[in-house]
Specification:
The protein contains 13 helices and twelve strands. Strands 6-5-4-3-2-1-8-7 form an eight-stranded parallel beta sheet. Helix 10 packs antiparallel against helix 13.
């Protein structure tokens, strides 16, 4: 759940532009888990964000009445993107079969109702990118009546630089947006009028929390791009909070705190969420190390930066972890600022570590 500060954030994309000449949209993959007491999840979500990627259509296309209700729930300036059903890529490999064309026609209708300008298409990592697949893609796009609807194609599990030249050329010829993960240092192979990125981070699948510096780098990549519109869809395990962190940074120039406290108390807050004991050091690093905590009021580090300095042993409780960790943390004043920058090895680790 997000607090009052996040709910008061301005939704206007022009507030996020800075040097970016076009629209800068920040959102997440879905809204169903965005909970504010007394509000429907999509209503609550739309008070904070002005863009969302509809995830459910990847698995099942909902009834038209449901889609129309979604559109009525949000304001006219709210932006949707729609995920293409997996049968198009995972089952039919872009082959323009009757099933594929009918599915695509239904998705076009979904996009029309939601006024979505982009449909996201994701291939499975196992898909072989050969001349047959390239021909299938050509045939499918040319057989479809997409109109002004743009395709954002994500080739899952394939380094952008390893995509076959002919396949890339086909993408360019049909004005397909090359969808990449900017949080993994990926870059589109060619520029487009739309920059579309789905952010998962460097962990296992989406189990990751980006540091302030990593989010700043994503923002810098957007600002350097010459697209007319940037659409960032957060998919980290804490996607709502992390997307809100970037929005707050764009609006204030500062990243917000992760917790309500700093130092050892902040670490305690993070571990109390779901840490289980007894646990070995390795188990703690695996289960808790991906998270961030507030080292100071303006500095966040990854939990693993601290855990890796702990002795190898079995820890029986959070208190034992905290007592062992406390000498490794720098001393802060009552405002959560460092009293001595060299007080601890952890103080030498900035957000980029």
């Amino acid at each position: 759940m997000l607090g009052e500060r996040q709910l008061k954030m301005k939704r206007d994309s022009t507030q996020l532009g800075d040097r970016f000449p076009g629209k800068y949209l920040i959102g997440t993959g879905g809204w169903s888990h965005f909970r504010i007491p007394g509000l429907h999840p999509l209503t609550a979500y739309s008070k904070v964000f002005n863009f969302v990627e509809v995830n459910s259509t990847f698995y099942k296309i909902p009834p038209q009445g449901q889609i129309e209700k979604w559109r009525r729930t949000v304001s006219p300036d709210f932006h949707f993107a729609v995920r293409a059903h997996r049968s198009i890529t995972h089952k039919n490999r872009f082959q323009p079969t009757r099933e594929t064309l009918e599915t695509l026609e239904k998705l076009e209708r979904v996009c029309q109702i939601l006024k979505a300008e982009v449909i996201h298409v994701q291939t499975p990592p196992s898909l072989e990118i050969d001349h047959v697949l390239t021909n299938n893609l050509q045939d499918l796009i040319s057989s479809s009546n997409l109109g002004r609807l743009r395709v954002a194609l994500e080739m899952r599990g394939v380094e952008p630089s390893r995509l076959p030249p002919r396949f890339v050329q086909t993408m360019r010829e049909y004005n397909i947006i090359h969808c990449v993960d900017l949080s993994k240092e990926e870059t589109p192979l060619y520029e487009s009028d739309v920059l579309y990125s789905r952010l998962f981070g460097r962990g296992h699948h989406n189990v990751y929390q980006p540091t302030d510096e990593e989010l700043r780098k994503v923002d810098q990549k957007v600002l350097k791009n010459r697209a007319e519109k940037a659409m960032l869809s957060f998919h980290f395990v804490r996607m709502y909070k992390d997307a809100a962190r970037l929005k707050i940074y764009k609006q204030t120039g500062r990243f917000p705190a992760i917790t309500k406290s700093t130092g050892i108390s902040s670490l305690e807050e993070v571990l109390k969420e779901d840490a289980e004991f007894p646990s070995t050091k390795q188990e703690l690093m695996k289960d808790q190390g991906w998270k961030l905590f507030d080292l100071t009021a303006s500095r966040r580090i990854r939990v693993n930066d601290l855990l890796e300095r702990l002795p190898h042993k079995v820890y029986s409780s959070i208190r034992e972890v905290l007592d062992t960790s406390k000498p490794l943390l720098p001393v802060t004043d009552t405002k959560g600022q460092l009293n001595n920058e060299e007080a601890s090895p952890c103080s030498r680790h900035g957000p980029e570590d």
